[in-house]
Amino acid sequence: MRILFLGDIVGEPGRKSVITHLTDIIRQHEIDFCIVNGENSAGGRGITPKIAKALFEAGVQVITTGDHVWDQKELMDYLPLEPRVLRPINYPAETPGSGSVVMDTPQGKFAVLNAQGRTFMNPPLENPFTIVEKEVTRLREEENVKMIFLDFHAETTSESIAMGFHLDGTISAQVGTHTHVQTADERILPKGTAHITDAGMCGPEISVLGRNVESVVWRFKSGLPTRFPVAKGPVRLCGMIVDVCPQSGKSTHVERFNRLYSPSES
């Protein structure tokens, strides 16, 4: 089973490029299942039901989020109605929505989990290492799911890498999100779990993490508050492609996805 994961979609440029090109990407790479992180897809902050529906129509199966999940207020009522949009699983149990979903596919059951790190992250949530471990055990033992994919939304490289080793052999793949910068450490860990510290973002190439360069530079230079509008121009789509054996749940191949689209293409 071949899975495509695309990192944090940033604003209108990122989401329009994903929606425009996803069908071709799926066809060219023979993708069986597509997951995207959509937590910055609404003007760079949060996601709306309308955007989620557009991504599903474009070919996405599951949408993950992170620390900006609540930035668009209408999502609070939408999450309980749409199990394919996840919020971090380590929120309190009574929080709207879910941190995991099991999907039926031609290759068998496929679970997607979403968790948020704690180091330098706000708000501070429950310990993701223990929460995710418990949920993975439940999925494997109670629902007999072999293929499990985790989006771990974390600030530090050490926390993301540690999560990968913590779950190695119990899940198929773990990707990091949140920093918007794709790392060059894609690999299959010793016990069969595919890992990349951060999948990167889907957003404007000439930007600071998807935001207007001049605004961010001015903020660092002056120390004064300012708005960070989403940048414009060519869009780079970043993520990871993973091949998973449906019988064992182990990954057999992993590669970074990284493609720049010109303004005319985007």
Largest β-sheet summary = 7 strands, mixed
Radius of gyration: 17 Å
The residue-averaged pLDDT reads 97
* CATH superfamily grouping: Metallo-dependent phosphatases
**What is the total domain count?**
1
What is the N-to-C succession of helices and strands?
A: EEHEHEHEEHEHEEEEHEE
Helix share, percent: 25-40%
Overall 3D shape: globular
CATH-derived topology: Purple Acid Phosphatase, chain A, domain 2
The structure class reads alpha/beta
The CATH architecture assignment turns out to be: 4-Layer Sandwich
Number of helices: 6
Q: Total number of β-strand segments? A: 13
Low-confidence stretches: none
Distance between the termini: 28 Å
In the CATH hierarchy, what is the class?
A: Alpha Beta
Strand content: 25-35%
Features:
6 helices; globular; Purple Acid Phosphatase, chain A, domain 2; about 270 residues; alpha/beta; 6-stranded mixed beta sheet; 7-stranded mixed beta sheet
Detailed description of the structure:
There is one protein chain. This protein has 266 residues and is α/β, with parallel strands linked by helices. It has a single domain, classed as Metallo-dependent phosphatases (Purple Acid Phosphatase, chain A, domain 2, 4-Layer Sandwich). The chain contains 6 helices and 13 strands. Strands 1, 2, 3, 4, 11, 12 and 13 form a 7-stranded mixed sheet that branches. It has a 6-stranded mixed sheet with strand order 5-6-7-8-10-9, with helices on one face. Helix 1 runs parallel beside helix 2. The longest helix is centred in the first third of the chain and has 19 residues. The chain is globular and about 55 Å long.
